[in-house]
Amino acid sequence: MVIKVFLASSSGSTAIKKKQQDVVGFLEALRVEYDPLDIACNEENRMWMRQNVPEEKKPANGIPLPPQIFNEESYCGDYETFFDAKEDNSVFAFLGLPPPPGSKEAEQADKAHIVTNGNHVEETNGDLDDSIEVPLEECNGDAHDEEEQAAEEEVEGEVAEEEIADDEAMEEETEGDEAPADEEEEEQEDAVEETDEITEVTEAHAEEEEQEEADDDRDEEDLQSEEEEELLQLEEEEEAEVQEEEEGDLEETQEEEAE
Predict the structure, then answer these.
(1) Which residues contact 27 (CB under 8 A, 6 or more apart)?
(2) pLDDT tens digits, residue range 123-155?
(3) Which helix H or strand E contains 152, and what residues bound it?
(4) For tag attachment on the chain, is the N or C end more exposed, with fewer CB atoms within 10 Å?
(5) What DSSP designation does 103 have?
């Protein structure tokens, strides 16, 4: 299985360059072998990538942007889905590869096969591990009667202590030991100030995110414009070559007629 990463080597978008570096750097850190395929200098790579990205994964304009990741012919995802898998420690599952032994992802996979039924028994063939001894009292439902009784008595004692504490608190309140109105007003003002500060921080964070999204949209539009300009340039070059060939044929025909 070969991991294919489609990249744009000559992209003028800073955001796309950063995303490509993140993907490639993380794969190299995990020692995952991959094949980088340039779509800027190779038209076949560009067309293959566009044709094999699923329709539901393409943006609204229908042109997927790099980086795009495949496992052989199978589509894995783009930068956003790769980043989500990275955050969840599930990059190997994202790539369709078995996790290496001892990795966090391998440990999570092992834990997923463990059934928690009070004895932490592994679900190997559907049978419980007979090596774990279970007291006879637990098997017939008569275990821990004394422990349950002691727990009930402890709960009753805690309830009694809480009732006594509540009674003392009520007596203190009736004796006029209440907080002054000025202190309550100060607390309310502090609460209002804290709420205003949180609101300002939230609004500032939202503005930053909107600005980042706007920058990313501009970068994507720039890349699409570059791709369209490259296509137009290729078409113009092809038309120029065809025109030159036609002019050459016309000159040869005129020379033959003159002879």
Answers:
(1) 3, 5, 34
(2) 444 444 444 444 444 444 444 455 556 555 665
(3) helix 145-174
(4) C
(5) S
